[in-house]
Amino acid sequence: MNGQPRLSVTVSGSEQNVLPYQGSLILTVSLRNDGNEQLTGTLSLVGEGAADLSPGWTAVGGSSNPNYNLGPGEGASYDLMLTSLYTTSGGELSMRVQAAGAGHQLLSDPFTLNVIGPTAAPDGVSFGLFELDNQKSITVMAVGWMITSLFVLLAITKRRRAKQDHIRSTFFETDETTGELPPLPMDGDLPPPPMPVVAGKASADNADEGGAKMVDGRVNCPSCSSSLKMPEGRQPPFKFTCPKCQESVRVVE
Q1: Which residues have C-beta within 8 Å of that of residue 229, sequence separation ≥ 6?
Q2: Structurally, how many domains does the chain consist of?
Q3: Lesser CB count within 10 Å: N end or C end of the chain?
Q4: Which residues pair with 175 in a beta bridge?
Q5: Is residue 91 within 8 Å of residue 66, measured between CB atoms?
Q6: How confident is the model at residue 29 (pLDDT cuts 50, 70, 90)?
Q7: How is the chain classified by DSSP, letter by letter?
């Protein structure tokens, strides 16, 4: 523009100037006073959405403000840090750097920023390697519940059947080949009735059955033939349990 001081404003960065979501991007802004006047002013970022980029200025000399004071032929460089705030929607933004002071207001050439917005939440369920929409997610979950229910029912049925088999094998004798109970005996299969026993003979047999005599204070066990010494003073008839075979022995006279 006519009458403007000879101040040049140059912005340099990467080829695409990508600003990641909730990340930052640093651009270099260079100033040069090619005129004969002392120039003092302030740098600012202008353009649609500039407020959402939270611009921060750092001079090469260490100053953290966007002010400049250049004599004739002097220059200065600044690092312009742009930060993507949470409200940034993303997209391509056209920006410029403005240098404004007493008697002058200059703009750099426009440059483009590729701002990455927040990633939209998946419309369904994400499994890391793949995503399913709502309808497919509902279908998969329903099939999963059905399969789980079938497994539970099969487990319950199997447990009940095992319990019934255990009860049947414990309380009933079954045929090993058919698994059925054996038939009840018919009248012809019944054992013959017991023969009458003479009272005198039965008493004699019972007296000798399981009995042993004591000789010289020792008794031979009828079951295991062990020779056992009896306690002194014991006189037949009496009973005791054999310590070897645990059978009951009746000592007779």
Answers
A1: 217, 218
A2: 2
A3: N
A4: none
A5: no
A6: very high
A7: -TT---EEEEEE--SS-EE-TT-EEEEEEEEEE-SSS-EEEEEEEESTTGGGG--EEEETTS--S-EEEE-TT-EEEEEEEEE--TT---EEEEEEEEEEETTEEEEPPPEEEEE--PPPPPSEEE-SS-EEEHHHHHHHHHHHHHHHHHHHHHHHHHHHHHHHHHHHHHH----TTT--PPPPP-GGGSPPPPPP--HHHHHHHHHHTTEEEEETTEEE-TTT--EEEPPTT--SSEEEE-TTT--EEEEE-
Q: Domain boundary residue among 65, 85, 115?
A: 115
8 Å CB contact between 216 and 228: no
Place of tokens 């032929």: 73
Cis peptide bond upstream of 237, omega within 30: yes
Question: Rounded CA gap, 240 and 238, in Å?
Answer: 7
Span 219-228, pLDDT tens digits = 999 889 889 8
Q: Kindly state whether residue 167 falls inside one of the protein's structural domains.
A: no
Last residue of some domain: 93, 115, 137?
115
CA distance 86 to 163: 63
Domain that holds residue 216: 210-252
d(CA 94, CA 113): 6
Q: What's the predicted TM-score (pTM) here?
A: 0.47
Answer yes or no: is 138 within a domain: no
Does residue 234 fall inside a structural domain?
A: yes
| Range 17-26 average pLDDT | 88
Q: Which amino acid is located at 116 in the chain?
A: I
* Backbone angles phi and psi of 53, in degrees to 5: -100, 0
Rounded to whole angstroms, the Cα distance separating 166 from 143 reads 35
